[in-house]
Design a protein that fits this description.
Rossmann fold; 10 strands; 2 domains; 3-stranded mixed β-sheet; 35% helix; binds guanosine-5'-diphosphate; globular; binds magnesium ion; alpha/beta; GMP Synthetase, Chain A, domain 3; 10 helices
Length: 311
Amino acid sequence: MADAGGPGSRLSADEVHSGFVALVGRPNAGKSTLINALAGSKVAIVSDKPQTTRHRLRAIVDTEDAQVVFVDTPGLHKPLDALGEQLNRSALLALSDVDVACLVIDSTKPVGEGDKWVARHVAAAKGAKVLVLTKADLPYRIPIERRIESARGLAEFDDIVVLSALEDFNVAGFLSTVTRLLPLGPRYFPREMATDQSLEVMLAEFVREKVLLRTRDEIPHSVGVSIEDVTHDDKNAMTTVVAVIYVERDSQKGIIIGAGGEGIRSIGVEARADLEKLLGSKVFLDLQVRVKKDWRRDASQIKRFGYGEGL
Ligand SMILES: Nc1nc2c(ncn2[C@@H]2O[C@H](COP(=O)(O)OP(=O)(O)O)[C@@H](O)[C@H]2O)c(=O)[nH]1
Ligand SMILES: [Mg+2]
């Protein structure tokens, strides 16, 4: 409740519930899907591959009486390489200075060691804590009450929310739960701003998502995307985007390009549709595939792609 009465606590007209809410959890828990559902448009990429999210991105949800800044984070996992370490550090850093820390758990999976490890970090965070059980639309042999019971002891939570981001079940309830936990303050971002990601990062990520959706095994981990050029032709209302897909081996390059170029063509068609929505114009997408050996072990290269930023 707003404390409008006490001395020195006069509320200015533009004070709202505002602050930062981090979503942390294991890879695949559903954090980025939830971020998109909250944002109302696609700001984060989603796939069933771990390490899909490599950026600590923010989605800003602005309402009449609140501005909630959700922080999506790479999934916390056992790091296998320099990229993995950067992603973990980036996710943990997001916890250090937020008003609400949300532990996001896939409700269709038993609570495991990984969740406990993440929960210890959430428990150590300064702000309020919320337990979020996702994917409530999926059938599961253990009733939801029992699943809540087994997860609620992971930390001292101020609230527990069960939702489905995919079916838009209780996403609004989650938003009001975290809003209530936020202090009163200014809006930190312009009201119309949906995300703090640069356009270039979003273009690169949307392309990377299509590669993830079409590949398996080692390849999703080995892909980095860089945007080399964006030019807009006003006369024809057409934007040309030059993007390079980097992989670590020649064999991976072959797989992405596919027989007769079929693979790269499909990636291009799917990515272009997303880019056109994002840019609001026709897009000509020039896609290239290049090999950069073992880039994931090279900290300076990881930085060049902008992954795990905020460190
Ligand atoms: N059925 C169902 N699937 C979901 C839901 N949320 C996420 N997923 C799926 O779970 C996978 C991982 O989602 P993602 O948001 O990338 O997880 P993250 O790694 O925590 O960001 C994707 O295949 C999503 O489509 C949900 O509410 N219901
Ligand atoms: Mg994600």
